[in-house]
Amino acid sequence: MNRRLVALLVPVLLAVAGCTAGAEEKEPGPTDRQKAAASRPSPFQDCSALGTPRASAAPAAPSGGGGQALPELTLNCFTGGAPVALRDLRGPAVVNVWASWCPPCRKELPAFQRLSERAAGKLQVVGVNNQDGREAAQAIGEDFGVRFPVLVDQGERLKRELNRKAIPLTVFVDGQGRIRHVDSSGALDDARLADLVRQHLGVTVPA
């Protein structure tokens, strides 16, 4: 009787021991990955200068006048530091709303990085990372060489304020901090982006 009981218990004990070992050897959870990403230097610039007007002085708004003010939202900077009130953003500026899981966003991000380099001193390029994971967003910045400042909008608040349902979105902000145009046509290339900047902000971008 005792032998039979032992024979029945041995497989059960071995199974329990196997489950415990498996639990100890499981893959790192999201918290571990997030910590690993946070330990790497951010590829993006800090946001400390976003409320500072461009040195070249804002050009006159293109014909048509008007334009709505930026929404009253305050967003955290990807690199930390003080949160940024969008109403304090001084243009001319191009604000690109993107996410790592959005294929057209990934396609156009290098063009925005090139715009930030070609138009340095004339306008500022700002990213708004929308409902994304920190590790994934950082990896995009590292892989695509994106260096301009990035704000974080996990709640998709800017998209809702603009009454838009999809990304990418690109917001063109004039020298008075007013929205001149919101583009949602899909991935923008260098030529189309330069055309939109010239048309809505009156800024000519070098080729």
Description:
It is a single chain. This protein is 37% helix and 17% strand. The protein is an alpha+beta fold and 207 residues long. An eight-stranded mixed β-sheet has the order 1-8-7-4-5-6-2-3.
What descriptors fit this protein?
207 residues, alpha+beta, 8-stranded mixed β-sheet, 6 helices, globular
**Overall residue-averaged pLDDT value:** 81
List the uncertain runs. Answer: 5-30, 55-60
**How are strands sequenced across the largest beta sheet?**
1-8-7-4-5-6-2-3
Instruction: Give the overall form.
Output: globular
Largest sheet: 8 strands, mixed
Radius of gyration: 24 Å
Number of helices: 6
How far apart are the first and last residues' alpha carbons, in Å?
89 Å
Q: Which class do the helix and strand fractions yield?
A: alpha+beta
